[in-house]
Amino acid sequence: MKKILILIALVITIVGADTIKVSSALNSLNKFAFENAQGAKLTIPSNVRTIVVSYEKYTGKLVNNYLDSKNPTYLDKLNAIFIADISEMPSIVITLFALPKIRKYKHTVYLHYSDEFAKYIPAKDKKITIIKIKNQKVKSISYIGTKSELKNILEN
Predict the structure, then answer these.
(1) How far apart are CA 88 and CA 11, in angstroms?
(2) What are the angstrom distances between the C-alpha of 101 and each of 12, 72, 128?
(3) What is the CB neighbour count within 10 angstroms for residue 116?
(4) Residue 152 — φ and ψ, nearest 5°?
(5) CB contact set of 14 (below 8 Å; sequence gap of 6+)
(6) Which of 16, 80, 110, 126 is geometrically suited to a Cys-Cys bond with 50, CB 3.0 to 4.6 A?
(7) What does the alpha-carbon distance between residue 106 and residue 35 come to, in Å, rounded to a whole number?
């Protein structure tokens, strides 16, 4: 009987976990703290239509390489932002290597340092999470893995 109760409690906890989903409000993302590479606080703009999220070095490099080949205002013109969750990265690596490299990019990278973000925004291994927004609500969540897919999703 105890095993059944524990199983039920576990299922309720998992089902009740707070994660972003279709129709979630855009402003729910602002409960997380974002910074740019210089340490300035950032919030998600209310006019954003696409949010690109990376959790891994591989996907972050793919996004940054693509964006670095574009005009510095590319994301702004598309009402898009790029969020890099670097919570898994050791702080010494962030300070010595990641931030100096990110500061050189022409585009803004929204940095997030807490592992709570990864629990809220879904991810797939070696995939970039794409969140499409319409009327300040999540319209769709998808996953991509190539530069051509990134270009297509941003520009359409």
Answers:
(1) 27
(2) 43, 16, 20
(3) 15
(4) -60, -45
(5) none
(6) 80
(7) 16
Polymer length in residues for the chain: 156
The span from the CA of 149 to the CA of 156, in Å, is 11
* Phi and psi at residue 5, to the nearest 5°: -65, -40
Q: How far apart are CA 38 and CA 77, in angstroms?
A: 22
What is d(CA 146, CA 63) in angstroms, rounded to the nearest whole number?
A: 9
Got the DSSP string for 55-99?
-SHHHHHHHHHHHHTS-TTHHHHTTEEEEEE-TTS-HHHIIIIIH
The confidence band for 156, taking pLDDT boundaries of 50, 70 and 90, is confident
Q: What is the pLDDT of residues 76-124, one digit of tens each?
A: 999 999 999 999 999 999 999 999 999 999 999 999 998 889 899 999 9
Sign (positive or negative) of CA dihedral 118, 105, 47, 153: negative
Q: What is the mean pLDDT of residues 22-43?
A: 92
Start-to-end CA span in the chain (Å) = 53
Q: Taking the CA atoms of the chain, what radius of gyration do you get in angstroms? A: 17
